[in-house]
Amino acid sequence: MIQSMTGYAAASVESPHGALAIELRSVNSRFLDLQFRVAEELRAAEPMLREQIAARIARGKIDCRLARGGAGTQAQLLNANALQQLRALAGEAAAAFPEAAPLRVTDILRWPGVLAEPALDAERTRALLEDLCRRALDELCAARAREGARLAAILCERTAEMRRRLAEVAPLVPEAVAAHRARLAERLREVLEAGVEERIRTEIALFAAKSDVDEEITRLGAHLDEVERVLAKGGAAGKRLDFLAQELNREANTLASKAAGLKIADCALELKLLIEQIREQVQNIE
User: Fold this and answer.
1) What is the pLDDT of residues 171-203, one digit of tens each?
2) How far, in Å, CA of 280 to CA of 235, rounded?
3) CA nearest to 252, candidates 264, 238, 263
4) Contact by Cβ (8 Å): 136, 7
5) What is the mean pLDDT of the chain?
6) Residue whose C-alpha is closest to residue 69's, from 122, 147, 17
7) CA–CA separation, 115 vs 79, rounded Å?
8) Whether residue 156 is found in the same domain as residue 274
9) Burial letters for 108-131: b for 16+ Cβ neighbours within 10 Å, e otherwise?
10) Is residue 1 domain-resident?
11) Residues 156 and 220 in one domain
12) Any idea what DSSP says for residue 85?
């Protein structure tokens, strides 16, 4: 199914070393652009995160934030080396300032480095992070799929409206061309001298070739068929749909320049407006 490039997801899990939390934000981009903000103690997990995201997402700018918070369930340990250094410093300070009060336990525990957190269990932490990343990606892909379904519905509506406009204008083309040809012939007869009927016929033939928009209408219909096929197929269709929108716009411009009547010109303008709406939506499709 069609995927949008915009979405948001977050997931968290409790670990012995505190809560692990991941946040994924996705916006549109020409390519897959991954940005990471990872806590320093979890930096080793970045390649795994990059691999998992790239396996699930083809396009978009992804901002991934991974953090660890809380004290965790494992008890903190006293750093024996830090305690020994603090004891030596306290002895020197007491000798220099005998009237000073001795250190309290709370002062000792607040001293930098005295309380040491247990080292992270790399294997267990990686397993938790892999599961956390999968959950967040599931949520993100679901959000992008929901938004993609809405975008696909909008594109189908615009495509159907364009088909309706083409169906209305197609029967008007022969009549408009014939009427314009008759007016041109009448004006040429009025301003040109007698005996130049061959020149008149040549000018009319050239006009008929330039004002025949059957080919443009046929191509517009073919491009609309392809848009509907791509939407039905799904997958990473954004670049293909963007190309088709450009081709639709090209044919609509040609139709406007060759329009032989006011209704045909109005139709070409309405088609261009609908195509522009399609192009705006396509920019958000993966």
Assistant:
1) 776 666 666 666 666 666 665 655 556 665 665
2) 19
3) 264
4) no
5) 82
6) 17
7) 6
8) yes
9) beebeebeeeeebeeeebeebbee
10) no
11) yes
12) H
Q: pLDDT, tens digit, for every residue of 211-270?
A: 567 788 888 999 999 999 999 998 889 999 999 999 999 999 988 877 666 777 888 899
Structural tokens at position 64: 């991934």
pTM for the model stands at 0.70
Classify residue 21: in a domain, yes or no: yes
Segments forming the whole domain that contains residue 187: 145-282
Pairing of strands 18-27, 32-38: unpaired
Total structural domains within the chain? 3
Q: What is the 3-state secondary structure (H, E, C) of 10-58?
A: EEEEEECCEEEEEEEEEECCCCEEEEEEECHHHHHHHHHHHHHHHHHCC
Please indicate, yes or no, whether residues 110 and 194 belong to a single structural domain of this protein: no
Residues 212 and 157 in one domain: yes
Structure-token pair, residue 136: 């967040």
Cα torsion 236, 237, 238, 243 to 10°: value is 140
| 220 contacts 252 by C-beta, under 8 angstroms | yes
What separation, in Å, do the N-terminal and C-terminal C-alpha atoms of the chain show?
A: 11
Which backbone phi and psi does 183 adopt, to 5 degrees?
-65, -40
Phi-psi region of 235 (alpha: psi -120 to 50; beta: other; left: phi over 0): left
Helix (H) or strand (E) holding 60: strand 60-69
Q: How far is CA 103 from CA 78, 96, 112, 147, 203, in A?
A: 16, 15, 14, 61, 107
Per-residue confidence (pLDDT) for residue 62, from 0 to 100? 95
Q: Tell me how many degrees the CA angle 238-162-271 measures, rounded to the nearest 5.
A: 90
Task: Indicate the SS3 state at residue 3.
Answer: coil
